[in-house]
Amino acid sequence: xxxxxxxxxxxxxxxxxxxxxxxxxxxxxxxxxxxxxxxxxxxxxxxxxxxxxxxxxxxxxxxxxxxxxxxxxxxxxxxxxxxxxxxxxxxxxxxxxxxxxxxxxxxxxxxxxxxxxxxxxxxxxxxxxxxxxxxxxxxxxxxxxxxxxxxxxxxxxxxxxxxxxxxxxxxxxxxxxxxxxxxxxxxxxxxxxxxxxxxxxxxxxxxxxxxxxxxxxxxxxxxxxxxxxxxxxxxxxxxxxxxxxxxxxxxxxxxxxxxxxxxxxxxxxxxxxxxxxxxxxxxxxxxxxxxxxxxxxxxxxxxxxxxxxxxxxxxxxxxxxxxxxxxxxxxxxxxxxxxxxxxxxxxxxxxxxxxxxxxxxxxxxxxxxxxxxxxxxxxxxxxxxxxxxxxxxxxxxxxxxxx
Length: 403
Fold this sequence. Notes:
- This protein folds into two domains: 268 residues, L-amino peptidase D-ALA esterase/amidase; 119 residues, Ubiquitin-like (UB roll), CATH 3.10.20.340.
- Helix content is 32%, strand content 27%.
- The protein has eleven helices and 15 strands.
- The relative contact order is 0.14.
- The model has no long low-confidence stretch (mean pLDDT 91).
- It comes from Ktedonospora formicarum.
- One of its GO terms (cellular component) is cytoplasm.
- Belongs to the ArgJ family.
- Its EC number is 2.3.1.35, 2.3.1.1.
């Protein structure tokens, strides 16, 4: 893989023909903090997207879902500090107005402009500030890293990645950014993710492989078990490499899929690692489930169990919390069959505690990354999920969020 993919800088502006720009327009209470950003391609792109399944979907999500039906996009405008959710018809009108301001600035068709918002729910966007901010944004092909910073809310650091590889002997680039550290339990967290590529890709296949990548990455993380109203993940493919459009039959399709999944897996783990107040990331490996669906249920159950997250924070290898979470997940579960491992230390065999090296188990819980393995011994289903511990820092962050 090291020879096939080369990691490079500038994330979403690494591929040919993409530019970004950012500004501080005063949406956030902290003056000077960047809170508005534009990502644009020099030419229209094939676009794919997946979004929150929340019943309270934010206005930008509704706009994106409607415009995605056309299969084309050229730009997206993103604000942080305000979710534009639960804002009624005015909020929806404001989302469309954001895209109108952006289209006018860029000189492109309005229906090719998408938008996203992240931040506090229930407040109307300050449209005068946004209009002025859009006008003052300066676009650059070397500002991708700043774009990753401008979309953050409670994130402690930007999350970004870009890869370079070959399709048909031509150099192709794929770049991605994401934000999210709280209200994270994607089901397609608050998470926003944008991925760009200069490869040509057929839209239906791009939508398929994006959904599959998201199911195994972003949909397998949790910080707090709360699903966001604004979850958005989109891929923009502008085709400037001029390759034969990728589809399932293309001989280089597996290379593109591998690159896409490498980026979504990396960014998903970074969100779990950066959970609000988190001190540890946990990796949950489930094997031996009746099928993959059951493995997913069992793996995810630990990532949003507050009892287990507290044990994780304290470095306590309390396997009863693990077994209880898996047993209540809805997967097929035989209480006389499961094995649990903390790191390399086996804690249970056939559902019963065994003698184990407690110092070794505590040591496996002490680092900033903890690996838990559960073998259900019921089939060949496997899944991996990622989460974090639950600390007082999470309470501190969310007890004063709107002040």
